[in-house]
Amino acid sequence: MLRKRLLYLAQLSAVGFGGYYIGQNKEKYCDFLYGNSVTVDGKRILNKPGLPVFGTVSAATPFVETNGSKDRISQIMKYGFPGLDNVRSYDDFVLSYDRRNRVPHWVFEHITKDHIAKNDAVDRSKCEFHPDESIHPFFRSQNTDYKRSGFDRGHMAAAGNHRLHQKHVDQTFFLSNMAPQVGEGFNRSAWNRLEKHVRKLTKVYDNVYCCTGPLYLPRRESDGKSYVRYQVIGANCVAVPTHFYKIVVGESSDGTLDMEAYVMPNQKIPDETPVSSFMVPPETVEKAAGLLFFDKIHRSKLNRINGKKV
Amino acid sequence: MLRKRLLYLAQLSAVGFGGYYIGQNKEKYCDFLYGNSVTVDGKRILNKPGLPVFGTVSAATPFVETNGSKDRISQIMKYGFPGLDNVRSYDDFVLSYDRRNRVPHWVFEHITKDHIAKNDAVDRSKCEFHPDESIHPFFRSQNTDYKRSGFDRGHMAAAGNHRLHQKHVDQTFFLSNMAPQVGEGFNRSAWNRLEKHVRKLTKVYDNVYCCTGPLYLPRRESDGKSYVRYQVIGANCVAVPTHFYKIVVGESSDGTLDMEAYVMPNQKIPDETPVSSFMVPPETVEKAAGLLFFDKIHRSKLNRINGKKV
């Protein structure tokens, strides 16, 4: 009986998510990204988008180290904090810092047409990558960690989403907002196209809320067991994530909410791969990241998830 | 000049920590465990025990999901929270849960003679391992995750430290207090000896404060690069830590404070290996774990660290 149920769930997964592109070793990451179920008391149950999400995280008043104005932070974080570990806010984005891995857990942005409009007063070429002094020196990444590592200092909050003031774009260059990304074929192409796609959503939605971060996904190895394996770079052992995610909610003027969720492998991706092929069910990202995204919105209140009617 | 300084520091490290036993692949883990220095703005500086530790973590009022009494929690956490991620308290211990890895970040205990005294009203054999319903089902480990994995459900807060009431020992059997440990030769021997050593400290000190948790240490591989690699078990991908740490502070009746810090590899360890050979400088554990231990005690106020006068 249980076996039958599991087979049924496995089939559902195969039908539902078979088309997603999760890198060259697609099948090996499947447990995390293709399974749309959760194990409770030993039983695997299907995890529908409408499953009530425990509201404990957002219910707490988080301790936020504040640079930005309270109003702006409230606006950015309108739909809930994905987690509460080492949260700090900047003038135009909020992040949670992973002190063990020296990269963010998540970075939250609120983007409108105004934030991304061409602005002659803002010059990205004036920006410099700099260590974030607000992070304890034990856990602070440095430019020297990235030097000669072969990896880009990849923005989590994209510089191009913060064009209202020079200070806003400057702050996206804090190393606390970076994670090591493969440069050619990823940061400078596929990932960049995903960032542009998110900006284009401001043409459709009045408000775009975007959460971005790293993943460390397990892979089945030749011994049949699953392992998480990732490189660390520099004297401060900065983690090189295996994947990155983006979870986006678009809010229309009539209050309609649509969600899109993406996971991309941190590797060279063929230029012709469409952004849509990286869509994954948001729950799979939540389970892999240990975070709950937009938990102030009950999933059943969403209009569409990844383009499909809820 | 800088080169000379680095050489000097390297020599210091070699002299100071050469005797530590960090498992079979000792030299490969050395960056994290032997280096007693920190990189600031590209320079490696010696990190003396007296280095001021940023007090931000303990200064914040943490959000604690409470089972135990406020007074007891204050007593257990007297010397500061190592981190503030998903903190939850039980009647006789406090833990921070790593939702990504489905094991604790840290577990804090306050132990006295009374807590470990023989008590006929308490029967450990009545205890059962059970999932912690206070953890969201996405991130909750289950008994089935451990079944046939080859790993023990290893207590972080040790059952033997909570003998005042049956409820106290019962709560140490929550799976949120467990991490996968090698059974034979580790959990049932070397690690057990370390737990017994901590209990024996109550003969010397009025109050013993003990923080325990997992580590995921990078290793240099044959390509010359460093990687973190660890197995994950079960449908919920519970992480198998590469190492475990214990940081202990003993408080004498006159207020004198001594600290001991241990790191053990999660592997079979020869029976004759003395517990003292696993001592490491506490700062190395802090850097590897992304946590700050006993940060309400300035290190210069400690009398001894690992048996040596500060």
TrEMBL record, chains A, B:
GO molecular function, one term: metal ion binding
Cofactor: Mg(2+)
Originating organism: Arctia plantaginis (Wood tiger moth)
Binding residues annotated for Mg(2+), in chain numbering: N187
Protein known as: Endonuclease
Residue span, DNA/RNA non-specific endonuclease/pyrophosphatase/phosphodiesterase domain: 89-300
Family per similarity comment: Belongs to the DNA/RNA non-specific endonuclease family.
Xref: Pfam families: Endonuclease_NS (PF01223)
